[in-house]
Each structure stands twice: as C-alpha cells, then as structure tokens.
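Before the break, one more example. Copy the sequence into your notebook; we will annotate it together after we see the structure.
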Amino acid sequence: MATYCLTVARLQEVNQEVYNFLSSAGAKYGVGFWKPGSGIIHQIILENYAYPGVMLIGTDSHTPNGGGLGSICIGVGGADAVDVMAGIPWELKCPKVIGVKLTGTLSGWTSPKDVILKVAGILTVKGGTGAIVEYHGPGVDSISCTGMATICNMGAEIGATTSVFPYNHRMRTYLEKTGRGQIAALADEYSDLLVPDEGCEYDQLIELNLDELKPHINGPFTPDLAHPVSDVGAVAEQNGWPLEVKVGLIGSCTNSSYEDMGRAASVAKQALDKGLKCKAQFTVTPGSEQIRATIERDGYSKILGDVGGVVLANACGPCIGQWDRRDVKKGEKNTIVTSFNRNFTARNDANPATHAFVTSPEIVTALAIAGTLNFNPETDFLTAPNGEKFKLDPPNGDELPAKDFDPGQDTYQHPPADGSSMKVDVSPQSNRLQLLEPFDKWSGKDLEDLRVLIKVKGKCTTDHISAAGPWLKFRGHLDNISNNMLIGAVNSENDAVNKIKNHLTGEYGGVPDVARHYKANSVSWVVVGDDNYGEGSSREHAALEPRHLGGRAIIVKSFARIHETNLKKQGLLPLTFSNPSDYDKIRPDDKISIRGLETFTPGKPLSAVVKHSDGSEETLELNHSFNETQIEWFKAGSALNRMKELQH
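Here is what the structure looks like once it is written out:
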C-alpha cells in the first residue's frame, strides 16, 4: 500500500498542470472528471456505465471491454468522440459478424483469457477487421462477467470492431453487486432482445470446446503468436528466446478484476505456504480504485505483496510503457510475462530486445514464482527451501466479493450546474499542453511531387508511429510529441529504425527531423506502408503528427480500422494499393503525385504517378474508403475545420 500511495503522489506532482487542464475543461463544458488514482477507464466503465444493450463509444481501442456486460462498446479516435459530444451523428461501415460458439466448461488452470488467446491465434491480428465478434453457446455460462470483459477487451488485438456476449445470470449478478439492480431487473424483462436471434447465421463461425482448451501464452512481439503453456518452453529454446522470466506483471484493463486478483493470490499463497517467493520481479496494477480498495480489505494485496509483488498505481502503467524499468539495459535480451493485452516491440519498457508474452494473471504468477518460461504448472514441480517437491493446485478465486465492493477514495468530480464562467487552464509557456491551430485546407488541386518520407517495412502499429511510455507526457502538446513520429518504424531501405535519407541534403537523420526539414522547405511528403498499418491503440497522435509535420497521404497495402478513420479526420489521405504488390514498386527516392482529387468521389479510385530517380515513371491505382462526408473533411483540411464551417 505504501508503494501505491507514493506512486499516486508522484503522479500528481509531475502531472498537476495536465490534471488542472482536464479538471477545468470538464467543469467548463459539463464533462465529469475521474481524478488521478481512479483507475483505468475501461474498468470504470464496467463498474459504472456499461449495461446490456447500450451502445457506447470510447477513445481507446480497448473500449470493447464493456461487451462483458452485453454492451456494444466501440473504440474510436478522439475526433469521432468530438462529433458525438457535439451532437453530430457517428457513422460506421456496417461490420460483418464472426460467431464464436463456446461449448464445455472452463476449469483448472484454464481461464477466460485463454479463450481470446486461442481466438487470436486462429484469426491473427487482422482477422477480425471490419467485424463484430459475437460469443454464444452453452459454454458462455461458465465464464464470469469480468471474464467475458477480458475476452471482449482483447478482441482489439484481432482488429475487431467490438466483441459482445449475450445477457445471462452472470451479468445480472455483477450489475446487482455494483449497485445497479434496477438495470438488471430491466435486462431480465427484455432478455430475449439481448441474446442472439434463434437460427441466426454468421459470416464466419469458430467453435471452441472449453473442456479441451488449455492455458495459453502468446508472444513475443505480437499478441497472435499463440502457444499452449505446456509448449512455450521448448519453443523458446528452439527460437533462442530467453527462458528466464525477469518480471511478471499482472493487472491492467484486461485482467484486474476481483476474480483475477483472487486467482493470482491463490497461486501465490500456495508458494508462500511452502516458504517460496517469486524468483522474478512481480508487479500488480489494480484496474480501479474500487478493485484496489477491495483486494486490500480482503487480504489479496497482502498475499501478493508477501510473495514479492509491488502494488502500482491504479493506471495503465507498464502496459502502456509507463514503467521506469532499471533491471536490464536497453538492448539487453530478456523475457517478461504479463496479463496485459499487447506485447508489441518496446511497448512495455522501451527496450526493443524485451520478449514480452501475454497470458492470464494466474499463469503470470506461477511463472514469476518459477522464474522460467520452461514451467508448466499443470505438470511440473517446484522445490521448497527444505527440498520438498510440490505441485501447485489449480487456482481458485471468488467471482465477486462476499461483502460489497469497497469504493475506496471518492475520485469523481461532477461538473457544476453552470460552468460557463470557468476558464480552461493552459499556460502559453507549457511544454506539456498546447492549444491546437487549424490545419490548412486542401488547395483544390492534385498533390504533386510528394517525397517518400519513409517506406515502412513489416508491422507498423500505432506504437511504432507514435511511441508511448515517456512520450505520453507530451500528448497534450502536438509539436513536442511529434518528435516521436515513426521513430519505431523499420525503414525498408536499410532495415534501421529512425534513420532515413533526407533527399534535400543527402544526409541521414531521424524521421521527425527529416519531416521537419521538408516542412520548413515547403516539401510535402507521403508514407508508404505494409499490411494492417496502424493496428493497436486508437492513439490520435499517430494521425495528428504526420499532418502536423507536413504529411499529405499514407499509402499502404491495408489499414487497421481506427487509424484509417483517424487519418481522414485530420485531413490526410489514407490510400491502399489496388494491387498490393505495387508496394514493391516504390523506391525510397521516388516522388509521387496523387491525381484525381478534383473529381474525388466515393468508390472512384485515385492514381499515383510515381517518378523514379532514373527518369522513368509508372502509374498505380489507389483505392480509398472515403464517403461524401469524409471527402468534405479532406477538402476543409480536417473534420474539426469542417465542423466549424458548418457553424457559419
């Protein structure tokens, strides 16, 4: 508890001007503010706002966490949320529906997390793009409400628009336990509307027998590389991945429920009873103040602390790179295991050599105690200090506390009845906060001779485009955070990160530096990318930064949904090669002209005239998904610009 208090106090000290801005802006415009220490918004949504049948959008890709309560919760970019708050209709291309039929019953070491780890292995990181995943079947009733939320939360890792479970008694119990009995009664009354229609058909159907499902661990470097826990040690040895587990981390928005913490504590207590503590470092991140207070009251925090755990603040923490890690040097190969949702390169600790694996909290705890990936708690033995060999029993934990939840400290600020006289607190001298200036409008002409800033090779998530971790302190200051633009992307020319050629000077430099030089010399540019460009976080900055530094178009094989929309919102052109193999025709020193903009219409491809340095040219067809409204955003320079035009 002492560590938690120090962490929150430090956060408040370092980030006070940001909290003041959020508090004053919320008060002025009638928006409630959850103060620092409240927790991760997805957990707060589940505890307070989500309910069966509601449709909710949130500015984070893990908003679908609310699907565990039968809600349609969809992650969007910040500009989409602005539309909704301003009373403008929000639209989405009608998604397909992927059905996942669950039979059997979860038991033993198998947890709800293993359902989505298995599904991710089947569908891959882009298999759910443009689809809602609907879980159904008799196996659903063996999963707790918060377990269903875990599964829906990590649906973001397969690119799904959202995921949802049918209403059942587990949801009713959770609603009642969180003070929403009246909503539960209403859901019971209309339960026939909150389950799949009889005889409904799916665009794709996956069937999982929970009786046969084994504990899984996915990674490293991508959340869809699935392994049964029983196999991962051998696979790691074959691939040269470090076997020693340096750190185990549990919690996050994906796995910090009361049940999760209870199951992890049950594993930890078995080790303590035999005189063992974790061989690896071990951290615990509660998902909300309510969870923190309740697990402290009920003794789980003490058990997790006694086994070697350190309780961190109720926040995203290491999951989003807010981790001052000091046990390994940058570039040193090492392995960590987490109960988080993402494990992209350098995401958790800014070290590209860290091999991060995602699994359930109970498996993380077991591996932290054993200190190695080469440990299967279902079959392998641990050795107590007295030499006794023993096996861990399968974890157990109450779905919900026997007593009511302890709400902990009151961290919610309700907006005043009239905030019109309030002043939003932003200092002109701040290096953390900067008021946005409108982007320039489209010139009305085709875009000529755009430089290729970088041709990206392979996976390029929004973490590669706009790194998190220490950079997050600048997320309210566009110019400062733009210094991280594409610094994690691999340059196809030299397989290096953050090293591209400046074609005006002939010298090599960092991506943001070259982009700034081009902008200062009135040279517009494009980025060329691979498949599923922009997967991962809904991070708005991954679209704002290219626009701010002079980008005009992003041309790739395919996009992740949220990032594609974010680019449109900021007045950029997200375009895809009509023939994906045309990616190979682009050279780093090319100039690209985008033609057809004067007759830009939905469904009509644009063209790229590619001028090579040897004097040759070729014309490529580029597809887009713009509708008429989105084309107006482009012409106005951004969706916000267009919104302002419509006010006059």
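The chain is about 30% helix and 20% strand. The longest helix spans residues 258-273. Try to locate both features in your own notes.
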